[in-house]
Amino acid sequence: MNPHFRRSLPKNLFMTVTVGAIGFWYWSGWVSESPLLAPIELTAPGSMERSVQLRVPQPYELSFEFTRGSIAHERVTALVGEMGLCGSGPSCGKGVPIEVEWSLSIPNTQGNVAGSRLTTNDASGFSNLEVWRRIGEVNVPPGEYKLRVAILQPAPELAVLKPAIRLSLFPKDTTSWQMFAVWWGALILPFVALPVALITAYLWLRSRR
């Protein structure tokens, strides 16, 4: 083996692994980023329109997002719903209903590629900071679209929770190769890239002595 090549091999491996890991993290963040998170007014009838870019060929979820803040859990569930966590029966609240109509269309074309008119009830997810209520599912090819959301029946009681519209990938959904790579890459990369980077960095520094 060429002596110069042997001395430069650890450096080249270190740079390749480091750049590859950084590139993967940037790419995975870009491809899995939520196409939309925008505030919406619920105190009066109205509508919003936004351009959205869908980057992955798999279903996206359209939902209301509410910020819990310092509001007591009991009040949050009374407003948004209990997601069935209280058990079954009429005592399990479904929150304040919101009548909404949404549509997705391709810019500068006639007609919609997706959409629905419905009355939303109940929460569909909780975190320490947010609560979500599902509106619908978007399953169209990747590309640029125009999303319109109209509030037909206002729900002013929910204004205290700073309502927003979120369009995002289904959590842990891996129906496309992109999300398969993001999911498994995030699990495997720390156990492969970090040790390889440390070993090659050590060999590189040792070869310079």
Give descriptors for this structure.
4-stranded antiparallel β-sheet, 5-stranded antiparallel β-sheet, about 210 residues, Jelly Rolls, alpha+beta
Question: How would you summarize the topology of this molecule?
Answer:
Blueprint: H1 3-32, E1 36-39, E2 46-54, E3 60-67, H2 73-80, E4 98-105, E5 114-120, E6 125-126, E7 130-138, E8 143-153, E9 164-169, H3 177-207
Helix pairs in contact: 1-3
Question: Could you please describe the fold and organization of this structure?
Answer:
With 209 residues, the protein is an alpha+beta fold. The chain has a domain at 35-172: Jelly Rolls (Sandwich), CATH 2.60.120. Helices cover 33% and strands 31% of the residues. It has three helices and nine strands. It has helices at residues 3-32, 73-80, 177-207, and strands at residues 36-39, 46-54, 60-67, 98-105, 114-120, 125-126, 130-138, 143-153, 164-169. The strands form two sheets. The chain has a five-stranded antiparallel beta sheet, with no helix packed on it. The chain has a four-stranded antiparallel beta sheet with strand order 2-8-4-5, with no helix packed on it. A hairpin with a 3-residue loop joins strand 6 (125-126) and strand 7. The radius of gyration is 24 Å and the shape is elongated. The two termini are 20 Å apart. The mean pLDDT is 84.
The portion of residues forming beta strands comes to 25-35%
CATH architecture heading of the domain at 35-172: Sandwich
Strand order of the largest sheet: 1-9-3-7-6
Please name the CATH topology of the domain at 35-172. Answer: Jelly Rolls
Number of helices in the DSSP assignment: 3
> How many strands?
9
Name of the CATH first level of the domain at 35-172: Mainly Beta
How does the overall form come out from the CA principal axes?
Answer: elongated
Distance between the termini: 20 Å
Query: Rg from C-alpha positions?
Result: 24 Å
Q: Name the helicity range.
A: 25-40%
- Summarize the biggest pleated sheet: 5 strands, antiparallel
The ordered H/E elements are HEEEHEEEEEEH
* Rounded average pLDDT: 84
Low-confidence stretches: none
- Indicate the structural class: alpha+beta
